[in-house]
Amino acid sequence: MDQLVIAGRAFSSRLLIGTGKYRDFDETRAAVDASGAQIVTVAIRRVNIGQDPRQPNLLEALDPARHTILPNTAGCFTAEEAARTLRLARELLDGQALVKLEVLGDADNLFPNMPETLKAAKILAREGFQVMVYCADDPIQAKMLEDLGCVAVMPLASLIGSGMGILNPWNLSLIIQNAKVPVLVDAGVGTASDAALAMELGCDGVLMNSAVALAQNPVLMASAMKKAVEAGREAYLAGRMPKKFYRADPSSPATGLIGA
């Protein structure tokens, strides 16, 4: 499969996976392995990667040599809070610049606060971060984030943790058409068909957590998501047949038939 390139770095997997909500680090590791994901997101405010030496460290379960650890700002509600969190992450990860920004506007529905997201993106880009950004499925604001220097835009398919799938494919298509950086669906994927649809629309990748971690069998679902992302990408590259309304064409030649 063709590679996903973000900020000049190439990845063979177009599936990105989160590390929250699993029963334990053993299940996290097994699901990540089954997914084939190379980029693994970590909520710095919720998961220990060295902030607390007294607690189990995720990096003991996931080898940073095999995975790109993508720190994210889940749980942040202001630009300043998000910037401060990612500065800490950069220290913990030996200066890594690639990060995921999300600034939330509501503690219940976790919809992004776009004014604060834009403010944070400007701050972080100025400080040398390579920002992958969670955003609303708004084509105008997605382009604004790209213009601020974000290396990938990540519109929601539906609300975080909802599992509702892609509710507005038209907006996603507009974002994809206008973007010069990778576009990845982030949030709302519930099952493999949602991931496949995102890729068929032309998304460059899919990021998910709840869809895998909250499945009855997370490891098996991670495997299913891997296949779905790959199949969706291949279908997009192949180009689907046109949709037709009540027009039957024979699949076999109509000439040279017996008796014709």
Protein traits:
3-stranded parallel β-sheet; 260 residues; 35% helix; 5-stranded parallel β-sheet; globular
Count of separate DSSP helical elements: 8
Question: What is the percentage of strand-forming residues?
Answer: 15-25%
The count of DSSP E runs of length 2 or more, i.e. the number of strands, is 10
What's the mean pLDDT score? 92
Instruction: Summarize the biggest pleated sheet.
Output: 5 strands, parallel
Q: What is the CA-CA span between the terminal residues? A: 45 Å
Q: C-alpha Rg, in Å?
A: 20 Å
Structural class per helix/strand content?
Answer: alpha/beta
The global form is globular
Unreliable residue stretches: none
Q: H/E element string? A: EEEHEEHEHEHEHEHEHH
Helix content: 25-40%
Strand order in space, largest sheet: 5-4-3-10-9
